[in-house]
Design a protein that fits this description.
Layout (H helix, E strand, L loop, with lengths): L1 H37 L1 H19 L1 H22 L1
Helix pairs in contact: 1-2, 2-3
Length: 82
C-alpha cells in the first residue's frame, strides 16, 4: 500500500511539472507574439540570433565552415570593388 502512495505522489508531482512547463511554453509564445507586434525588427533579429546560436551548438563544424566561407566571400567581394 505504501508503494501505491509513492507512485500516486510521483504522478501528482509529474502532473504539476507538466503544467508548469505548459504555462512556461505558452508564456514564451505570448511574449514572442507581443514582441512581433510591438517591435518586429528586434524580435526577428533575436529569433535569428537564437537560431544561429542553436545551429552552432548542434553543428559546430558546419557553422565554422559556413562562417569561413562567408568571410572569404566578403573579402573577395571587397577586393573586387576597389
Amino acid at each position: 500500500m505504501k508503494v501505491v502512495g509513492y507512485l500516486l505522489g510521483a504522478c501528482v508531482i509529474l502532473a504539476i511539472v507538466r503544467a508548469v512547463a505548459t504555462v512556461l511554453a505558452l508564456s514564451i509564445i505570448l511574449v514572442l507574439i507581443i514582441g512581433a507586434i510591438c517591435k518586429p525588427r528586434e524580435t526577428l533579429a533575436w529569433m535569428a540570433f537564437v537560431l544561429i546560436a542553436n545551429l552552432c551548438a548542434a553543428f559546430p563544424f558546419a557553422c565554422l565552415t559556413a562562417g569561413a566561407l562567408a568571410a572569404c566571400a566578403a573579402v573577395i567581394k571587397f577586393r573586387q570593388t576597389d
